[in-house]
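Lecture notes, continued. The same structure-token format from the folding unit now serves as the input rather than the output. Read the line below as a description of shape only.
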């Protein structure tokens, strides 16, 4: 009986903490967008050195190649990042991220996956906004290399020594209408307001 009570208590504790971790509500979107929450450091990209949470919003049709929203999504890191990101930071972190993610998703364990290539530039006259391109291997759907366009904006809170970093991705060109939809996904609060 003691063992049963202990196990029940342990299961309830895991359930409570698991629910707390899954309740991040950092981004705005309507119900048609998928949502996922991942704790950081991320299991598949543990080289990214920050603690916190990642919240993801997937465009409708994210997994369907013929849809406008194919591979179009937004995620935010709410982390203990206490400095301004550089282009090198972004390139390195996103290489870790996509290489790790695709390695986990890849079903053909004998296949050597192409490595992610990332290139970012700072937007003119702005120290916390970036634009970039990534060449990734899509182990989810196409089983082939694909190009992703990306924009990044860092919100840094000096007082709390933390950041919220918003990433937007799509294979569609930056002028495509899907970017209007991606840009509607916004932070509910900036890091100093949390």
């Amino acid at each position: 009986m003691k063992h049963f009570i202990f196990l029940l208590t342990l299961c309830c504790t895991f359930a409570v903490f698991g629910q707390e971790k899954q309740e991040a509500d950092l981004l705005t979107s309507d119900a048609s967008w998928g949502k996922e929450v991942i704790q950081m450091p991320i299991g598949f990209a543990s080289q990214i050195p920050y603690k916190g949470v990642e919240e993801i919003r997937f465009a409708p049709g994210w997994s369907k190649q013929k849809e406008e929203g194919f591979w179009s999504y937004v995620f935010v890191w709410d982390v203990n990042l206490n400095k301004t990101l550089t282009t090198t930071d972004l390139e390195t972190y996103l290489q870790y991220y996509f290489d790790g993610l695709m390695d986990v998703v890849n079903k053909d364990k004998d296949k050597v996956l192409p490595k992610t290539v990332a290139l970012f530039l700072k937007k003119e006259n702005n120290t916390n906004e970036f634009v970039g391109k990534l060449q990734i291997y899509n182990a989810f759907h196409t089983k082939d290399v694909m190009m992703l366009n990306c924009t990044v904006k860092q919100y840094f809170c000096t007082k709390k020594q933390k950041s919220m970093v918003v990433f937007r991705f799509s294979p569609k060109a930056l002028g495509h209408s899907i970017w209007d939809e991606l840009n509607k996904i916004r932070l509910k609060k900036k890091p100093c307001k949390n």
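Point for the exam: The chain has three helices and seven strands.
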